[in-house]
Design brief:
The complex is a heterodimer of chains A (189) and B (325). In chain A, 27% of the residues are buried. In chain A, the strands form 4 sheets. In chain A, strands 9-8-7-10-11 form a 5-stranded antiparallel β-sheet. Chain A folds into 3 domains: 3-63, SH3 type barrels, CATH 2.30.30.30; 67-127, Nucleic acid-binding proteins (OB fold (Dihydrolipoamide Acetyltransferase, E2P), Beta Barrel), CATH 2.40.50.140; 130-187, OB fold (Dihydrolipoamide Acetyltransferase, E2P), CATH 2.40.50. Chain A has 189 residues and is mainly β. Chain A contains 1 helix and 16 strands. Chain B has 325 residues and is α+β, with helices and mostly antiparallel strands. In chain B, 36% of the residues lie in helices and 23% in strands. Chain B contains 10 helices and 11 strands. Chain B is globular and about 55 Å long. The A-B interface holds A 7, 28-38, 40, 53-58 and B 48, 50-51, 98-104, 176-177, 179-180, 183, 189-190, 193-194, 196-198, 201, 219, 221, 237, 244, 247, 298, 300.
């Protein structure tokens, strides 16, 4: 794997730090007029999701991490693992709940999502930004009730709970932004 | 077609820069300080191991010479002072290789000036006057004057003049900067740079000019060591809103001491496998001939413009930063 110097620490670069794959978020060059140059780097540990700050002496380098984002189709959950497939190659991957994390509440069979692979093993799963899911449970809206405007909770087929407007009913399919868990619109079947 | 032909700064910024240059020239004209020019391309260069330079070849067949783009006009200006110029100032480009970031561009603009018979306190008073003029409409708070030791202690609890490895390490670890231990090891100056950059500087000059004086003697650079306290140098740095703006000295005039410091820096360059440079013999000769008693300071004009325009990046105040130059 290539080695990257502090000058090359651009946002999005994947590197190995403390034996974990990480992504550079921000890199600030810090140098007193008469003094040592440092790079103050904000970096996300891709295994834990934690963001840390770390300073490097300018010119230090880190090994690149073999991390790639691959578009895959979510297949099914066998109870222990969730299974994904690359549609072009039919190559399959499995990931446990620790890796899938919060993404699980948005994953519907056959939907596509992004699986981050580190050395060809799943590291994280990111659902599509927008998903269309059916409501399996929500209170019937009271006609004419315009109070609050905050809507009501609705449980979706994948398990996620989002707030929806009062007029939306059980059985309807809605579009949701998975990054904010916000209701976007109803979807006409 | 390339789309990056356009400047990265706004037309307003071009006007601001022109206005500030006019104000500075008016300020020094009113005080009888002479504007000068010195070469950007020179045969000599500073030995400071922290400053990387650009070099180029001068073709003069059958000969070739290496010339250096100046990292600051300091040496040439001191030669003018030794030649009897009187107090002088210059607005010029300076070049520092490898320095690029939110506050750095490898080519940048400096205002540098020298005042005969000024000690550091008089120079600081003049800086205060200039900054007050340039920031007249910005409602800066009263200027702060703090010693390096006091300000370092205030923000870290550590004494910068007495290096205690265990105390420094314990502090770094407690502050979530354990990497400092590996980076700085037993190097007191490196520790000072690291902790000052991370834990002190960001808090200096919150909407005010903050002048930090009395730098540790090990960071004396081209400043005199204080006669009253040999642990500190007669050096001052300027900060506004956590941004380092300038660096000034009660200038070292002792040629032998200067040659010694050059030698020290050259041996550090050698240890670090940095490009070898020759001591600037003409500067040393000028010091031997006699540099008048003076203080001098350099201010980064691009950063000053960043502060005046509340810009987040130096590219917002430059016409064409290095990636578009």
């Amino acid at each position: 794997m290539a080695v990257y110097s502090t000058n090359e620490f651009k946002s999005g670069l994947k590197v190995m730090l403390d034996n974990d794959p990480c992504a550079i978020i921000e890199n600030e060059f810090v140098k007193p007029g008469k003094g040592q140059a440092f790079n103050r780097v904000k970096i996300r540990n891709l295994k834990t999701g934690r963001v840390i700050e770390r300073t490097f002496k300018s010119g230090e380098s880190l090994e690149g991490a073999d991390v790639v984002d691959v578009e895959m189709q979510y297949l099914y959950n066998d109870g222990e693992f969730r299974h994904f497939m690359v549609q072009d190659t039919f190559e399959q991957y499995q990931a446990d709940s620790k890796i899938v994390g919060d993404a699980s509440q948005w994953l519907k069979d056959q939907d596509s999502c992004t699986v981050t692979l580190w050395n060809d093993s799943p590291l994280a799963v990111t659902p599509a930004n927008f998903v269309e899911l059916a409501i399996v449970e929500t209170d019937p809206g009271v006609r004419g009730d315009t109070s609050g405007g905050g809507g009501k909770p609705a449980k979706l087929e994948t398990g996620a709970v989002v707030r929806v407007p009062l007029f939306v009913q059980t059985g309807e399919v809605i579009k949701v932004d998975t990054r904010t868990s916000e209701y976007i619109s109803r979807v006409k079947e | 077609m390339q789309t990056d032909w356009q400047p990265t700064c706004s037309v307003d910024l071009l006007h601001l820069r022109a206005r500030v240059l006019g104000q500075i020239r008016g300020f020094f004209a009113g005080r009888g300080v002479l504007e000068v020019e010195t070469p950007l391309l020179g045969q000599g260069i500073g030995t400071d191991p922290q400053l990387a330079f650009f070099s180029t070849r001068y073709e003069s067949p059958p000969n070739q010479h290496t010339l250096f783009l100046q990292t600051s006009p300091e040496f040439a200006m001191k030669r003018l002072l030794a030649a009897g110029s009187g107090s002088i100032y210059q607005i010029c480009k300076a070049f520092r290789n490898g320095e690029s970031g939110r506050f750095h561009n490898p080519e940048f603009t400096l205002l540098e000036w020298y005042r005969l018979d000024f000690g550091l306190p008089q120079l600081m008073a003049e800086v205060d006057d200039l900054i007050s003029l340039l920031f007249a409409d910005y409602g800066l708070q009263a200027t702060q004057r703090l010693s390096y030791q006091d300000v370092f202690r205030k923000h870290t609890g550590l004494d910068p003049l007495v290096f205690s490895y265990p105390e420094y390490c314990a502090y770094a670890v407690a502050e979530g900067l354990p990497e400092a231990v590996a980076i700085c090891a037993g190097d007191a100056v490196l520790w000072q740079d690291f902790l000052f950059s991370h834990k002190v500087q960001p808090y200096l000059g919150d909407n005010a000019l903050c002048m930090v004086y009395g730098y540790p003697a090990c960071q004396s650079s081209l400043a005199r060591i204080s006669p009253e306290n040999p642990r500190v140098a007669e050096r001052v740095e300027l900060f506004i809103k956590g941004v380092e703006l300038g660096n000034g000295y009660y200038e070292l005039t002792d040629a032998a001491e200067q040659a010694r410091r050059f030698n020290d820096e050259l041996s550090i360059r050698q240890q670090r496998n940095q490009p070898a440079v020759a001591k600037d013999g003409r500067l040393l000769a000028a010091l031997s001939a006699g540099l008048p008693d003076c203080s001098g300071i350099a201010i980064g004009l691009d950063r000053l413009l960043m502060l005046l325009s509340a810009s987040a990046s130096i590219t917002d105040v430059l016409s064409f930063p290095i990636h578009r130059a």
